[in-house]
Amino acid sequence: MKLYSAKQIYKADQISIKKEEIESNELMERAALQLFNWMHLRMQGAQVKIHLFCGIGNNGGDGIALARHLVDHGYNIEVYVVNYSEKRSKDFLINLDRLKDRKVWPSFMNSDDQLPEIGRDDIIVDGIFGIGLNRTPDAWVAKVIQHLNNSQAFILSIDIPSGLFTDQGPDDFDTIIQSNYVLSFQTPKLVFFLPETGGFIEQWEVLDIGLDPEYLMQTETEYELIGKNEVLTLYKPREKYGHKGTYGHSLIAGGSYGKMGSVCLSSKAALYAGSGLVTSFVPKIGYSILQTALPEIMVMTDAGDNELTDIKFDIEPSVVGIGMGMGTSDATVKTFSEFLKHNKLPLVIDADGLNILSKNKELLKYLPDNTILTPHPKELERLIGSWKDDFEKLKMVKAFSKKYNCLVVVKGAHTIVVNKEKGYLNTTGNPGMATAGTGDVLTGILTGLLAQGYSALDAAIFGVYLHGRSGDIAVESTGFQSLTASHVIENLANAYLDLFKMPEQPVTEEENQSN
Ligand SMILES: NC(=O)C1=CN([C@@H]2O[C@H](COP(=O)(O)OP(=O)(O)OC[C@H]3O[C@@H](n4cnc5c(N)ncnc54)[C@H](O)[C@@H]3O)[C@@H](O)[C@H]2O)[C@H](O)CC1
Ligand SMILES: [K+]
């Protein structure tokens, strides 16, 4: 799913109005009707108090138009205009008049002197600011927003939580509505998924207000949201006459004394992801560990007893996944550097591999094109430096990806695969996966997919999705606390099977009776 920027949404707006030969207030009416239908379906006329807080722009206009539909259907509403500017939008004013025709008189708020009382069982509709917010709200508006956040009432935001910028990081976190549910027009917004701002949204849903499909289809976006529909087009089915050679050979290199588990996890994950063959390349200390833990894999040992000191092998794997548990001793740094200088194979680099690159930036020029790097936030900071907010971070990652012609998997709650100018945000995964070894599993999956002939970009997008989906299936039986990296590997099979599962259909009345 594409994530459009505010600029693109405004453009779609203009094109739709022109093509359909409609007034802009008709689009607002569509938006308001969609909002109303959503609420009406759930509330069925319930007399819960609904407080609608509306700004003076079009987001406020949506709220005012929604208020009209609610009052027409007998709902118990109270409307407030958060009067933060004299520049009221045309469609806001049209809808204000329509509301007044119903004898509904909003309270105009010009300061935070008299904040209305809100019951914890009431509902708040947040239509203060939409995608037009372009500077931090005034202090008194921030107080109103804080008052709403403190009310404990359910907050339903129109389009975006008020106070969040659509395409830049916030200046002040106290001026943002903490939404329980966001009904977002046409597209979710990028900020719903970034670490700093994602927490302001508990749940979201897109309402289709019929913006010009042609424009939406043709327009490239900087970011895409990746779900099952997107990865299904990447999936490579197995061929009837395929053999284990068809599905590639993954070499997993890493480990040191006390950290062999990481190589076990990566190697096993590469195998479960579908790699035809897997060889682990480890220091001597790892030989029995790997052979005992994983009978399906082959093991090669380095000259070093406890750490990698001489990364050389006489086999021809399809791809190398390297870095997990490897340590950063002088000998290992030396052999890793030599390896990079001579290597021609596709690479996935994780953990200490990344740490060595961060300390020896001159090695970056040896990365083969489309190498996949999988940093967690600290590793990323070591690699690219620190950032002021999520937007600056993404800009820096894009520049890095472009400069070194590599893919960066920015790990987080919504992992983002960055390929030069473009970012792909993952939708699977859960907080239970913040546990030892899940990163090693991801590296193994990505290596295993590359071995099977997926392009680096497809492997990164699909691998990140599968990893999260396995975790999501696993957590149903483990709970968040007890989810381990091994559970993620064990559920890879279920994640693959889940790709082709049809969504469950609701059971009809007759079917229910015949059961
Ligand atoms: N295509 C669609 O998706 C449709 C969206 N609709 C809704 O319209 C808003 C966007 O409306 P807009 O009037 O452009 O912006 P806002 O409502 O967000 O209002 C902000 C308004 O105020 C000015 N402003 C910005 N920041 C501040 C500030 N800190 N203090 C004071 N004033 C500020 C700014 O200049 C704006 O004019 C969208 O989110 C949807 O809800 C349409 O209803 C249907 C089509
Ligand atoms: K809003």
TrEMBL record:
GO MF annotations in UniProt: ADP-dependent NAD(P)H-hydrate dehydratase activity; ATP binding; metal ion binding; NAD(P)HX epimerase activity
Catalysed reaction equations from the record: (6S)-NADPHX + ADP = AMP + phosphate + NADPH + H(+); (6S)-NADHX + ADP = AMP + phosphate + NADH + H(+); (6R)-NADHX = (6S)-NADHX; (6R)-NADPHX = (6S)-NADPHX
Family assignment from sequence similarity: Belongs to the NnrE/AIBP family.
Free-text cofactor note: Binds 1 potassium ion per subunit.
Segments forming domain YjeF C-terminal: 227-499
Protein's GO biological process: metabolite repair; nicotinamide nucleotide metabolic process
Coiled coil: none
EC number(s) reported in the record: 4.2.1.136, 5.1.99.6
Requisite cofactors: Mg(2+); K(+)
Function: Bifunctional enzyme that catalyzes the epimerization of the S- and R-forms of NAD(P)HX and the dehydration of the S-form of NAD(P)HX at the expense of ADP, which is converted to AMP. This allows the repair of both epimers of NAD(P)HX, a damaged form of NAD(P)H that is a result of enzymatic or heat-dependent hydration.
Protein name per the record: Bifunctional NAD(P)H-hydrate repair enzyme
Organism expressing this protein natively: Maribacter litoralis
Residues binding AMP: 411-415, 439
Positions that bind (6S)-NADPHX: 58-62, 130-136, 159, 325, 376, 440
Keywords, ordered alphabetically: ATP-binding, Isomerase, Lyase, Metal-binding, Multifunctional enzyme, NAD, NADP, Nucleotide-binding, Potassium
Domain called YjeF N-terminal: residue spans: 9-217
SUPFAM superfamilies named among the record's database cross-references: Ribokinase-like, YjeF N-terminal domain-like
One Pfam family recorded for the sequence: YjeF_N
